[in-house]
Model the fold of this input.
Amino acid sequence: MSKSILITHATVFTMDTNNRVLRDTGVYTEGDRIISIGPSELLARQGFRPEITIDGSGKVILPGLIDTHVHLIEAIMRGLVPDDVNLHLWLKEWLWPLQQACDASIGITSAELCIAEMLRTGTTCFLEAQLHSNWGIEGMARAVLDSGIRGNLSKMVIDTPSYDPTGGASHPFAEDKGHSINTFRNLHRELNGKGEGRLGIWLGVNNPRACSDDLGRELNQVAIDHNTGLTMHVAETKVDLDNMSARGTTPGKWLEKTGLAGQMRVFAHGVWLTEQDISILEKSGASVAHCPSSNMKLGSGVAPVTKMIQSRLNVSLGCDGGPSNDCYDLIREMKTAALLHKVSNLDPRAITATEVLRMASINGAKAIGLEKEIGSIEVGKKADLVIIDLHDVRLYPPQGSDSNILYAASGTDVSHVIIDGRFVIEDRKFSTIDEEELLLKTERETDRLLRVAGKT
Ligand SMILES: [Zn+2]
Done:
């Protein structure tokens, strides 16, 4: 049950159309909604009878952060994969063998670990990229519902095992497309919209390299029929671009041709998109989930994010996976994004803190089609709020500015997280998760994963 909450005297980053930052401001929530926002003294006179009151002095309130490219299965693989390997070898030699060794028990544990980290660091909503049936998708859905987070889980669909046109790896998760789509339909029927709408079921296409033209067209129709979204890795490395060239096209043109470009279509990475691709995606209403840490660690390249923003293509943010980042902390990811584009453009004006904050909030909401419900702090929207406590030597003097949050803070500075008007983190402690039990279970399942994968 949610309780009515009044937070007073805080600095509120609304992330509304005008990016208003309100000082000495109160936010009142009732049920799952934001009821009132205004000067603390004014709110005190409005006669609200909150069940919980928080003194927000020295604190910042952000909208719940939204991670639009997450691999739940990879949290348990953090540190198990060599750091200094390019993406294709990294997949073939390490990531895929580990993923093939995952069963439902390991998969669900990894999802619980990932969700706990996201909650702990201020992420209230996420889009999972691709889940195989062997990994316990129903149990992962239960983890979403029980933890209180808002999440979209995508059923993996792959019909083209040949992965690398240069003769490299063959994707191990190709399955009959009819089977994949039926599994998606069943999951969607059983689970979509559960948890008062917190849980969504999407389609997760691995990559254009793993998807025939026919499958692309069919999945577009399946997504439309189910009124749901679709996500895909696109143009992550130069090999992706070369593969499209070999098929006589570019990533953007292929997405347009198959009908996959459009609203509620989230394309992760987009490092090697051409200028024409950016224009195609912008016109279609699609979004790019920028994953700077992953792209930097795997040496994939620098996504042309400043060009995307100039072209008004919606850019959101993603932490990607356990071994490629190695954290699911969007506040740290925001700093990485800002620094990357300043240095790669040799221009400190290339991207602003506000633009990056929008990527992790309202742009993320737009990417997944929830911009009317979440992503900003406005009356009538869902009560998904993150409180950052500035009372710390690392954040002093406590300016409460966007610079303060982006460049000095990290997810561990989050003191409270509220989703649908309920606390999931309160005074830095989990309200819905037994942290010690989760850590013990993770140790056990990691040992088993390494044994089964033959990596001990
Ligand atoms: Zn990914």
Remarks:
- The first strand starts at residue 5 and ends at 13.
- The chain has a mean pLDDT of 95.
- The chain has 17 helices and 17 strands.
